[in-house]
Design goal:
- By secondary structure, the chain is mainly β.
- About 0% of the residues lie in helices and about 30% in strands.
- It is built from no helices and 9 strands.
- The strands form 2 sheets. The chain has a 5-stranded mixed beta sheet with strand order 1-2-3-4-8, with no helix packed on it. A 4-stranded antiparallel beta sheet has the order 5-6-7-9, with no helix packed on it.
- A hairpin with an 8-residue loop joins strand 5 and strand 6.
- It is globular and about 60 Å long.
């Protein structure tokens, strides 16, 4: 008696235009533009940080380059102003903070593959000890 195996996938595939190897902690989700929906953020070992919106586009919505080997990325309200910032740290210990909250056009439900990715620059950079592999952003105040 032979047994036949069958598999069915109920998951849609998502393809994004982003090249390069990445560390597992250099991937994160967060609402960095304040529209109430999470963006997908990924950094690679070549120093490129990309922010993808969930609007059907394969291209990054925002991008930053030449950041060094990005080992971890995260999001949080680190300036305590009610807005979420994007933070990435590279292997040399350079911490870069991005605020893309105010630079966001409304999320479109149509694909915008023809739109060019806008480059973002850090609003703050801080040297930290090298070889940071994991980042945890948390509120420690009892408010």
């Amino acid at each position: 008696m032979s047994c036949m195996l069958r598999s069915v996938s109920f998951v849609e595939r998502l393809e994004l235009e982003f090249r390069g190897n990445h560390f597992c902690h250099a991937l994160t989700l967060g609402d960095v533009d304040g529209d109430g929906l999470n963006e997908f953020i990924v950094g690679n070992v070549d120093g490129t940080l990309a922010v993808f919106k969930g609007n059907g586009s394969k291209k990054p919505w925002r991008i930053s380059k030449d950041l060094g080997t990005i080992t971890c990325a995260g999001t949080g309200d680190i300036f305590n102003n009610g807005k979420i910032q994007l933070v990435c740290i590279n292997s040399a210990g350079n911490c870069h903070i991005f605020s893309v909250y105010s630079s966001s056009p409304p999320r479109s439900s149509t694909s915008s593959d023809s739109m060019e990715s806008q480059e973002i620059q850090p609003v703050h950079s801080q040297p930290l000890p090298p070889n940071i592999k994991v980042m945890l952003l948390a509120c420690i105040a009892p408010d």
